[in-house]
From TrEMBL:
Keyword Cell cycle: no
The protein's name: Dihydrolipoyl dehydrogenase
E.C. number(s) listed in UniProt: 1.8.1.4
Additional free-text comment from the UniProt record: The active site is a redox-active disulfide bond.
Positions annotated to bind FAD: 55, 119, 150-152, 320, 326-329
Chain residues that bind NAD(+): 187-194, 210, 278
């Protein structure tokens, strides 16, 4: 039997990065907050089965690969290098647990009431949104405002039925107990390339099948080519503009039937098939439409661009369920924005400065527009670029592959986009994001101090090169 109805200023459905950040910020602003999460742990897909566990595995596999293939250049002799996959997985679980324990601490610290179960909307009146929680301890809530932060789910392909053994999703790929001999990755996006990298480094022969003309279509075209060629050198095989017709498990192998752009068919046999074609908004059990929340043809909840309020006053939506990139940090910023708006303060997200990162090695990262986008928009621009190869720190690290490319407005010199393939690209991108957030010019970036010797000097040289002022070009 459900407890008596409990009242809150804000109820947030979904405890992923967007939801829990929104909850913390709302609590900081003096609001009484409820957070509803169906998992046993806070953090959503990102912390539990996405961003964090995959990065833990990427880090381990990168260490293994470097010890096996790069130590000789440093004068270090290592023999009999082995990987204990079960121990690697145990470390991953430990990392995840430490973070989820930390999030539970933050909920308690900020006096956020957490309800474990599935939340659904019952009714929506001005300053009174009724929410039902179903789980081990059913509950009924009334909140003045409600935030939908239910995230996204894996997209499945009907002709490639997932069985969790031979045909798998990312959830399974981060929990394999042994290194597969071969793997077909369906989808050349972030998830496919990152998890493909984990297993490729450990000895799996990886083939990526992608329908589009290239991988990572949001990345600048020339760097896209550089990234793909780098991965090919590491052992990846790419089949671009290729459609998957179906897959069938045959014993311990899977036969994947594919067709290229001319319709020519062939079959690939692999130990595992990873379905990584993207994610879709998750709001099936929410009852959103029942209370009047509008959902567009793409399955995204419609919101006001300035407030992120849905078509129902008092109900907001953030993160993967609305338009925009499905990124944890995008959801987090929207969570802060909505909490501040609900508290009567101004809130804002600059979508022109959302950073994108792929944690392969070298890493791939970008923010803003690329050359194709600038041309399509009719924006005149100048370009600056610089390779990692001449950089002193990159040479010392023996990590010289890659380049930074910067685009700036031809008239004002305002930075419009920064694209990186190279070591530590994820961290290097940070200064570009800050510069763009403040409307900075390429010359501002180029004339700022950059410690020597550091990889960040590649950013400085690329920024100087926009106006043909590069010193070491």
């Amino acid at each position: 039997m459900a407890d008596a109805t409990q009242n809150f200023d804000v109820a947030i459905i979904g405890g992923g990065p967007g939801g829990y950040v929104c909850a913390i910020r709302a609590s900081q602003l003096g609001l009484k907050v409820a957070l509803i999460e169906k998992r046993e742990t806070i953090g959503g897909t990102c912390v539990n089965v996405g961003c964090i566990p995959s990065k833990a595995l990427l880090d381990t596999s990168e260490h293994y690969h470097r010890i096996k293939h790069e130590m000789d250049d440093h004068g270090i002799t290592v023999s009999s290098v082995k990987i204990d996959v079960k121990k690697m997985m145990a470390r991953k679980e430990r990392v995840v647990k430490e973070l989820t324990d930390g999030l539970n601490f933050l909920m308690n610290k900020n006096k956020i009431t957490v309800f474990r179960g599935t939340g659904s909307l019952v009714s929506a009146k001005p300053d009174a949104v009724e929410i039902k929680v179903e789980g081990e301890k059913p509950a009924s809530l009334i909140a003045k405002k409600c935030v939908i932060a239910t995230g996204s789910d894996i997209i499945n392909i009907p002709s490639v039925p997932v069985d969790g053994k031979n045909i798998i999703t990312s959830d399974h790929a981060i929990a394999l107990e042994e290194t597969p001999e071969s793997m077909v990755v369906i989808g050349g996006g972030v998830i496919g390339l990152e998890l493909g990298s984990v297993w490729s480094r450990l000895g799996t022969k990886v083939t990526v099948v992608e329908m589009l003309p290239d991988i990572l279509m949001g990345l600048d075209a020339s760097l896209r080519t550089l990234a793909r060629r780098t991965l090919e050198k590491q052992g990846f095989t790419f089949k671009l503009e290729t459609k998957v017709l179906g897959a069938q498990a045959k014993g311990k192998q899977v036969e994947v039937k594919i067709a290229d752009k001319d319709g020519k068919e062939e079959s690939i046999v692999a130990s595992k098939v990873l379905v990584a074609v993207g994610r879709k908004p998750f709001h099936d059990s929410l009852g959103a439409e029942k209370v009047g929340v509008k959902i567009n043809q793409r399955g995204r909840i419609e919101v006001d661009a300035h407030t992120l309020q849905t078509s129902v006053p008092g109900i907001y939506a953030i993160g993967d369920v609305i338009e925009g990139p499905m990124l944890a940090h995008k959801a987090e910023e929207e969570g802060v924005m909505v909490a501040e708006i609900i508290a009567g303060k101004p809130g804002h997200v600059n979508y022109d400065c959302v950073p994108f990162v792929v944690y392969t090695w070298p890493e791939i990262a970008w923010v803003g527009k690329g050359e194709d986008q600038l041309k399509a928009a009719g924006i005149e621009y100048n370009t600056g670029k610089y390779m990692f190869k001449p950089n002193g720190r990159a040479k010392a690290m023996n990590q010289t592959e890659g380049q930074i490319k910067i685009y700036a407005d031809k008239r004002t010199d305002k930075i419009l986009g920064v694209h990186i393939v190279g070591p530590n690209a994820s961290e290097l991108l940070g200064e570009a994001v800050v510069a763009m957030e403040f409307g900075g010019a390429a010359e501002d970036l180029g004339r700022s101090f950059h410690s020597h010797p550091t990889l960040s000097e590649v950013m400085k040289e690329a920024a100087l090169d926009v106006n043909k002022m590069s010193i070491h070009q």
